[in-house]
Specification:
mainly alpha; 2 domains; globular
Length: 169
Protein backbone atom coordinates (compact mmCIF):
# COMPACT_ATOMS: atom_id res chain seq x y z
CA UNK A 1 0.00 0.00 0.00
CA UNK A 2 1.43 3.39 -0.89
CA UNK A 3 2.01 6.04 1.75
CA UNK A 4 -0.75 8.19 0.24
CA UNK A 5 -3.20 5.29 0.28
CA UNK A 6 -2.25 4.22 3.80
CA UNK A 7 -2.37 7.75 5.24
CA UNK A 8 -5.65 8.68 3.57
CA UNK A 9 -8.27 9.74 6.12
CA UNK A 10 -11.20 8.43 4.11
CA UNK A 11 -11.04 4.69 3.21
CA UNK A 12 -12.57 5.59 -0.15
CA UNK A 13 -9.63 7.92 -0.76
CA UNK A 14 -7.18 5.05 -0.13
CA UNK A 15 -9.08 2.89 -2.61
CA UNK A 16 -9.07 5.75 -5.11
CA UNK A 17 -5.26 6.03 -4.86
CA UNK A 18 -4.87 2.28 -5.44
CA UNK A 19 -7.30 2.36 -8.36
CA UNK A 20 -5.48 5.32 -9.93
CA UNK A 21 -2.14 3.52 -9.53
CA UNK A 22 -3.62 0.40 -11.14
CA UNK A 23 -5.00 2.42 -14.05
CA UNK A 24 -1.65 4.13 -14.66
CA UNK A 25 0.24 0.86 -14.50
CA UNK A 26 -2.16 -0.79 -16.93
CA UNK A 27 -1.92 2.16 -19.31
CA UNK A 28 1.86 1.74 -19.52
CA UNK A 29 1.91 -2.07 -19.37
CA UNK A 30 3.51 -2.29 -15.94
CA UNK A 31 2.86 -4.31 -12.82
CA UNK A 32 3.50 -3.44 -9.17
CA UNK A 33 4.26 -5.34 -6.03
CA UNK A 34 5.44 -4.38 -2.57
CA UNK A 35 8.54 -6.14 -1.30
CA UNK A 36 9.49 -6.28 2.38
CA UNK A 37 7.86 -5.58 5.69
CA UNK A 38 5.93 -2.39 6.39
CA UNK A 39 8.87 -0.53 7.97
CA UNK A 40 11.13 -1.52 5.06
CA UNK A 41 8.51 -1.78 2.30
CA UNK A 42 9.62 -1.05 -1.26
CA UNK A 43 7.32 -0.51 -4.25
CA UNK A 44 8.62 -2.47 -7.26
CA UNK A 45 7.38 -1.56 -10.75
CA UNK A 46 8.34 -3.38 -13.94
CA UNK A 47 6.88 -4.25 -17.36
CA UNK A 48 4.11 -6.87 -17.44
CA UNK A 49 5.98 -8.57 -20.28
CA UNK A 50 8.64 -9.75 -17.81
CA UNK A 51 6.11 -11.87 -15.89
CA UNK A 52 4.87 -15.40 -16.58
CA UNK A 53 2.56 -17.10 -14.08
CA UNK A 54 3.28 -14.45 -11.46
CA UNK A 55 7.08 -14.74 -11.67
CA UNK A 56 9.63 -12.51 -13.38
CA UNK A 57 11.42 -14.50 -16.09
CA UNK A 58 15.01 -13.24 -16.45
CA UNK A 59 15.13 -14.15 -20.16
CA UNK A 60 12.31 -11.64 -20.79
CA UNK A 61 14.19 -8.71 -19.25
CA UNK A 62 15.53 -6.63 -22.10
CA UNK A 63 16.59 -3.55 -20.11
CA UNK A 64 16.77 -3.48 -16.30
CA UNK A 65 16.56 0.32 -16.38
CA UNK A 66 12.85 -0.08 -17.15
CA UNK A 67 12.24 -1.31 -13.58
CA UNK A 68 11.74 1.16 -10.74
CA UNK A 69 11.98 0.58 -7.01
CA UNK A 70 11.12 3.13 -4.37
CA UNK A 71 11.01 2.86 -0.59
CA UNK A 72 7.55 3.48 0.82
CA UNK A 73 8.75 4.64 4.21
CA UNK A 74 10.73 7.70 5.13
CA UNK A 75 10.90 11.15 3.64
CA UNK A 76 12.24 10.83 0.13
CA UNK A 77 11.56 13.74 -2.14
CA UNK A 78 12.96 13.96 -5.64
CA UNK A 79 15.72 16.42 -4.76
CA UNK A 80 16.84 14.27 -1.83
CA UNK A 81 16.81 11.09 -3.92
CA UNK A 82 18.73 12.80 -6.74
CA UNK A 83 21.43 13.95 -4.28
CA UNK A 84 21.76 10.48 -2.74
CA UNK A 85 21.87 8.81 -6.15
CA UNK A 86 24.51 11.25 -7.40
CA UNK A 87 26.64 10.66 -4.30
CA UNK A 88 26.32 6.87 -4.61
CA UNK A 89 27.18 7.00 -8.32
CA UNK A 90 30.26 9.12 -7.57
CA UNK A 91 31.43 6.59 -4.97
CA UNK A 92 30.94 3.75 -7.46
CA UNK A 93 32.92 5.66 -10.10
CA UNK A 94 35.72 6.24 -7.60
CA UNK A 95 35.89 2.50 -6.89
CA UNK A 96 35.85 1.69 -10.62
CA UNK A 97 38.62 4.16 -11.39
CA UNK A 98 40.82 3.08 -8.49
CA UNK A 99 40.25 -0.68 -8.60
CA UNK A 100 38.86 -1.56 -12.05
CA UNK A 101 36.68 -4.58 -12.66
CA UNK A 102 34.98 -6.49 -11.19
CA UNK A 103 34.90 -4.03 -8.27
CA UNK A 104 33.52 -1.23 -10.42
CA UNK A 105 30.52 -3.28 -11.53
CA UNK A 106 29.88 -4.48 -7.98
CA UNK A 107 30.14 -0.93 -6.62
CA UNK A 108 27.71 0.29 -9.26
CA UNK A 109 25.23 -2.46 -8.37
CA UNK A 110 25.47 -1.62 -4.65
CA UNK A 111 25.10 2.11 -5.34
CA UNK A 112 21.96 1.45 -7.39
CA UNK A 113 20.59 -0.84 -4.68
CA UNK A 114 21.11 1.71 -1.90
CA UNK A 115 19.69 4.55 -4.00
CA UNK A 116 16.62 2.71 -5.25
CA UNK A 117 15.80 0.52 -2.27
CA UNK A 118 16.62 2.83 0.62
CA UNK A 119 17.40 6.27 -0.81
CA UNK A 120 20.40 6.30 1.50
CA UNK A 121 24.09 6.94 0.91
CA UNK A 122 26.13 3.74 0.55
CA UNK A 123 28.03 4.45 3.76
CA UNK A 124 24.77 4.31 5.74
CA UNK A 125 24.09 0.69 4.78
CA UNK A 126 23.34 -1.47 7.78
CA UNK A 127 24.47 -5.09 8.12
CA UNK A 128 20.91 -6.15 7.26
CA UNK A 129 20.94 -3.99 4.09
CA UNK A 130 24.28 -5.46 3.00
CA UNK A 131 22.91 -8.94 3.64
CA UNK A 132 19.80 -8.16 1.56
CA UNK A 133 22.03 -6.87 -1.21
CA UNK A 134 24.28 -9.94 -1.16
CA UNK A 135 21.54 -12.54 -0.82
CA UNK A 136 18.69 -11.06 -2.84
CA UNK A 137 19.53 -8.07 -5.02
CA UNK A 138 23.03 -8.98 -6.24
CA UNK A 139 22.29 -12.45 -7.63
CA UNK A 140 18.95 -11.44 -9.18
CA UNK A 141 19.59 -7.93 -10.45
CA UNK A 142 23.33 -7.46 -10.97
CA UNK A 143 23.67 -10.56 -13.15
CA UNK A 144 27.15 -11.11 -11.72
CA UNK A 145 29.75 -13.23 -13.44
CA UNK A 146 32.08 -15.52 -11.48
CA UNK A 147 34.68 -12.78 -10.97
CA UNK A 148 32.07 -10.40 -9.56
CA UNK A 149 30.71 -13.05 -7.19
CA UNK A 150 34.21 -13.87 -5.93
CA UNK A 151 35.05 -10.20 -5.33
CA UNK A 152 31.77 -8.78 -4.01
CA UNK A 153 32.70 -8.81 -0.30
CA UNK A 154 35.94 -6.95 -1.04
CA UNK A 155 34.03 -4.60 -3.37
CA UNK A 156 31.70 -3.58 -0.53
CA UNK A 157 34.74 -2.82 1.65
CA UNK A 158 36.16 -0.67 -1.14
CA UNK A 159 32.83 1.16 -1.44
CA UNK A 160 32.81 1.90 2.30
CA UNK A 161 36.39 3.21 2.14
CA UNK A 162 35.72 5.34 -0.95
CA UNK A 163 32.56 6.80 0.60
CA UNK A 164 34.42 7.72 3.78
CA UNK A 165 37.17 9.37 1.75
CA UNK A 166 34.65 11.28 -0.39
CA UNK A 167 32.81 12.60 2.68
CA UNK A 168 36.08 13.78 4.25
CA UNK A 169 37.15 15.68 1.09
Amino acid sequence: MTRLARDAVDPNEAAAYRDRRGDLLAEYGFTARVRGEESEATLVLHPDSWVVDGNVVPARIEDTDRAVERPLEGAVDTAEWDAVAAHNEAVAETVAEAHGEPHGANAEAFATFMSNHYARPVEQATDRMREEFLEEYFPRNAWPDDDQRAAVAESLELVARAATEERSD
